[in-house]
């Protein structure tokens, strides 16, 4: 993949936005409510599949090398033992899939962006919930049912996720128009 300075800059911006989304946090249990997923989905829509995923790979890598950019100001290799780490892994795949769906046709539509955002959100849960189950039950031996895991890892977040989908659908259309006017092509 040949990456220009402009694309590297945009990847860095979305990595930074994901970091900032971590710190806008409401701790409610093993997984805090943050704005990360909003920026993850937006990265796929704006940057496309490969660059969006790259922005999340950079985020994950920076956290694993020790920068305290994961929830609760954590970082380092021990972060893989956090119940929320599976969601971070899901960020990479979510951004990639959102980019694929969003840019699958020549013209963009709000309907396709909402669909891509919904699929991206589900993708984060597909990675996050089983990982959370594994850490809480196998490693920490808490003996929680999958229903309890679903309640504390997904159900509490659904209203916020719906709000994020609406915000993303409005913001992304405007951002893409601005990028098109500036003749910035990313895909």
Number of structural units classed as domains: 1
What top-tier CATH class fits best?
Answer: Mainly Alpha
Q: Fraction of residues in helices?
A: 55-70%
Query: Helices and strands: which structural class?
Result: mainly alpha
Number of strands: 2
What about the largest sheet? 2 strands, antiparallel
Spatial separation of the terminal alpha carbons: 11 Å
**N-to-C series of helices and strands:** HEEHHHHHH
User: Averaged pLDDT, please?
Assistant: 91
Brief summary:
The protein is mainly alpha-helical and 187 residues long.
Written account of the structure:
There is one protein chain. The chain is mainly alpha-helical and 187 residues long. The chain has a single domain, classed as Arp2/3 complex 21 kDa subunit ARPC3 (Orthogonal Bundle). The protein has 7 helices and 2 strands. Strands 1-2 form a two-stranded antiparallel sheet.
How would the blueprint of this fold be written?
Blueprint: H1 5-23, E1 25-26, E2 33-34, H2 36-47, H3 49-64, H4 85-102, H5 110-139, H6 146-153, H7 158-181
Antiparallel strand pairs: 1-2
Question: Features of this protein?
Answer:
single chain, about 190 residues, mainly alpha, Arp2/3 complex 21 kDa subunit ARPC3, two-stranded antiparallel ribbon, 7 helices, 2 strands, about 70% helix, globular
């Amino acid at each position: 993949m040949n990456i220009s300075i402009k694309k590297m800059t945009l990847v860095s911006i979305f990595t930074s936005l994901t970091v900032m989304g971590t710190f806008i946090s409401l701790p409610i249990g093993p997984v805090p409510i943050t704005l990360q997923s909003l920026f993850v989905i937006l990265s796929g829509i704006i940057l496309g599949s490969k660059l969006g995923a790259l922005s999340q790979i950079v985020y994950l890598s920076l956290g694993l090398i020790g920068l305290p950019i994961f929830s609760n100001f954590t970082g380092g290799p021990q972060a893989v033992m956090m119940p929320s780490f599976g969601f971070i892994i899901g960020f990479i795949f979510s951004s990639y899939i959102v980019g694929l769906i969003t840019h699958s046709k020549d013209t963009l539509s709000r309907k396709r962006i909402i669909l891509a955002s919904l699929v991206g959100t589900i993708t984060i849960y597909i990675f996050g919930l089983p990982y959370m189950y594994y850490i809480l039950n196998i490693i920490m031996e808490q003996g929680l049912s999958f229903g309890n895991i679903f309640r504390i890892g997904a159900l509490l977040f659904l209203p916020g996720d719906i709000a994020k989908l609406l915000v993303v659908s409005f913001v992304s259309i405007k951002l893409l128009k601005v990028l098109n006017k500036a003749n910035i092509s990313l895909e």
